[in-house]
Amino acid sequence: MLEEKEQKLPETVEGTQHSETAETKQESEKTSEVPNEEEKKDTPVTDSDTNDQGEPDAVGEIDEENAEDAEDSDNQQRHHIPLLDYHSMSMENLVGEFQRLLRTEKVQAIKRHVDGIKHEFNLKFQEFIEQKKEDFVNNGGNEIDFRYNSVTKRQFNELYKDYRERRNQYYKNLEKSHKENLTERQAIIEELKGLVNVEEDINTTYKSFKDVQERWRNAGPVPRTHYNDVWRTYHHHVEIFYDFLHLNRELRDLDFKNNLEEKTKIAERAEALAEEPDLNKAFRELQTLHKVWKEDLGPVGQEHREAIWERFSNATKVLHQRRQNHYKALEKTYEANLEKKHEIIADIAKLTANIANNHRALQQQIKQIEAHRDAFFKAGKVPQKVNEQTWAAFKEAVRGFNRSKNAFYKNMKGEQQKNLDKKRSLLHLANSLKDSEDWDTTTQEMKRIQSEWKKIGHVPRKFSDKIWNEFKAACNHYFDRLHALKNDAHKEEVENLEKKNDCIERLKDFKISDDRENDLETLKAFITEWKSYGHVPFNKKGINQKFNKIIDALLRKLNVSRQESELLKYGNKIKRLAKAEDSGAIQKERTFIRRKIDESKNEIRQLETNLQFFSNASEDSPIVQDVIKNIDAHKEALTEWKAKLKRLNIMENRLNKEEGEDENDNGAVSTSEEE
């Protein structure tokens, strides 16, 4: 019987080389050693293999997790490192999180995290670089010439290279010890198999068995691809040792009893986990219970084996079902997130269909797109089967908006170029006028081109500051010169105002004496002095009226009529014109007086004509009296202007006569010299 059973014992799995890099390790995690047909017959098939549909169930899932943890105890730390929502992070934040993981966590514990970061970073960078390329082409570039140096991408590549090197070096160092441990465990299994053929005292054989168990527990980790098969083979031969050797029943039953008690406790704890509110914590503890069940405890009596395993397996299935329900609930959440993302994509499409036609409004739409983008990433995960499809739809929607935006700005650049040509023309004109001294004409023209400048729209940004600064400098140059000139004139006007104020104060102190002629000469001197001073500030011109009122009052005290007073004042102007000996100024004054004479005659003629319409009216009529009064006033003014013209003519004739005498004198001198 013993020999027959031994023939059915499974062969131990031969060791294979365990050389794992960051790339090959991912593939090796998905595969496990497949037992040959002979092993399938003798290896106990439990619920840890498949469910009714032939798919790995809860126990199989836990076995795979434990196999990964058994390879290196530090692997367990991955369960305690939170998996963040990498989808909602920007490229810069993903790089920052990658840096943090490499700095603070063990390299073998962050694979799942790094894979998530890498996936999201590549998606975002691809979208980013495609947009940059599209902008480059829209700006007139050739796609084949497109290059973009991304600091963020370079940082990510350096981090990922560092991660791969550290991870590869880590597993390279583990490879040798894993291989040695696998060889040692295979040797222990062979030794265990040999115990059933040893003819010696049963107590000695049992002692050897315990020694084998102790060495097995201390043998160290093996590659995860061999973990489950090695343990199943080991347990299979342990059960054979208990079942088919004629051990001392007392020793065997004691082991069976102890193992049953411990497995019962494990089953009870597994059942209690169904009430644990933290599902992740419950699953992690269940994983530990399976590890203890497999690695620390031996078999139980034949009559209890199926029942205790069934109890533990059922408790595992309950938690597994709860976990599956949790995932189904998550799927519903993912479906809701998918709806949100579809709404966001639709909103972006609406913006694209109603693109703004001005810069300010388009900038607002760009901000809305950025808000939609943030909302898209914060909306959460969607079902895995539509993840790529949803992401592609989002990218296409954003790209569609960007194409419309770029088309708008491309057209706007054409308009801006036209505006630039207009402003360059105005700049050229401003530069040509900035040194002009034709102040009246140039000032009006400079103001006009400044107003025209304001009406012209934007120019390309790279020229905006430069052309504005040049135009402003040309305008400032001209107006600084104009203001400097006005400041000089203003300074002189202020000085004239001070002199005229002093003149008025002295005039106020003048007292009429008994010598009328002397008083008239004094007043003439005041008038002459007053006329010698130039203009005063515009807002102080009232000082001239003030002076004339005082002079008129004094002349009235001297019984000088208004006409005589006007001629007296005009006499001072005649003197200034004579002194200046400016024929042009004299001619200008004559033209002015003649125009005034003509205006007075026309007014008199018009008023006299109007008066004829009142032929039937009484001379006592206020209207008639007013017309007559106006006629008299204009006649008086006509007399004054004629008198002024007469005095101007007399002065001019005198000047001409004096000029003729000077010429004769010069001629006489010449003749005298000739003689």
Describe, in plain words, how this protein is organized in 3D.
Helix 15 (439-455) packs antiparallel against helix 16. The protein has 675 residues and is mainly alpha-helical. The protein is rod-shaped, with a radius of gyration of 57 Å. The chain has helices at residues 2-7, 22-29, 37-42, 58-71, 91-104, 111-138, 151-194, 202-217, 224-244, 249-272, 279-295, 302-353, 359-378, 387-433, 439-455, 461-508, 516-532, 542-557, 562-580, 583-612, 622-674. It is built from 21 helices and no strands. The termini are far apart. This is DUF349 domain-containing protein. It comes from Meishania litoralis.
Provide the descriptors you would attach to this structure in a database record.
disordered C terminus, 77% helix, rod-shaped, 675 residues, mainly alpha
- What oligomeric state do the depicted chains represent? single chain
Query: What class do helices, strands and sheet pairing give?
Result: mainly alpha
Total number of beta strands: 0
* Percent strand: under 5%
Q: State mean pLDDT (0 to 100 scale).
A: 76
Low-confidence stretches: 1-56, 663-675
Give the count of helical stretches. Answer: 21
The radius of gyration computed from the alpha-carbon positions, rounded to a whole number of angstroms, is 57 Å
Broad shape: rod-shaped
Summarize the main sheet: none
One letter per element, helices H and strands E, the order comes to HHHHHHHHHHHHHHHHHHHHH
State the share of residues found in helices, binned by percent.
Answer: over 70%
Distance between the termini: 180 Å
Organism: Meishania litoralis
Protein name: DUF349 domain-containing protein
